[in-house]
Amino acid sequence: MKEDLVLNRRQMLKSSALLLASAALDDANASMSANAFAPKYQIGACDWSVGRQLSPEAFERAKQIGLHGIQVSYNTGKDEKGLSVPETLQAIRDASARTGVKVSSLAIGELNRVPYKSQPKTEEWVWNSVDAAKALGVKVILLAFFSDGDLRNDDTGKKAVIERLKKVAPHAEKQGITLGIESWLSGQEHLDIINAVGSKAVKVYYDFRNSTDAGHDIFKEIPMLGKDMICEIHMKENGQRLGEGPLDWPRVAKAVKDIGYEGWMQIEGATPRGAEIIPAYQHNLNYLKGLFLS
């Protein structure tokens, strides 16, 4: 009888161990299954492209369209302090919470009008935008270099930008924020700036349309830069809906997937002249879903 009891106890312990192991395996499989279906890509739009720059209303429009997020302007020409004003930042945070639409990233488009390469006050903008990004829980800030901020054939401007980025990069690194350079420059020119700054907090904000228009071969640049150097991407056809312009979007999608990029893609400037924004962006969203989420 005693031996039977010992045997039964051993069998119970063995069974319990098997049950625990099975439960652990089930948990692991469930976790793997959840990760397998986790989205690699999230689709947002620029607040200026949905017609509501630095405004809580951008989130309402994004929800109506069905977007995952909104890329928010850090400031505007009328409100240079922008998200550094606590009330403005809180209004954006509240709009995100109310609608369920994320703040996907920030952008300082005002650098096109007030160049980072030459205007001292822009250093304060970029520094403070890092704090705003941290407060909103976003990881990327787009720094724009077009129009008056253009860096093409401007070695003096490039040197000034490098020196200014060197000063703010440690602050961005400490806060876990990436500063993304978007410009007309080639992929190699972007890398030259990044290498000169010498910080993991500075990367390329890649725009396929801009690079193509500047005469660069995007299908060589995308693999050259790779997922480690591209912090975020714009999906744009100036004045046309996505898939209806000259860019080969299926090939773009393949190139993006091939480098293993995962993260936000922001729709910009993809509304035909005179067309309504909401239906145009619903088309753009569905088009990208077909390329990336199907």
TrEMBL record:
This is Sugar phosphate isomerase/epimerase. Residues 59-289 form the Xylose isomerase-like TIM barrel domain. SUPFAM superfamilies: Xylose isomerase-like. Keywords: Isomerase. It comes from the Bacteria. GO terms for molecular function: isomerase activity. The keyword Isomerase applies. Pfam families: AP_endonuc_2 (PF01261). The lineage of its organism: Bacteria, Pseudomonadati, Bacteroidota, Cytophagia, Cytophagales. The keyword Isomerase applies.
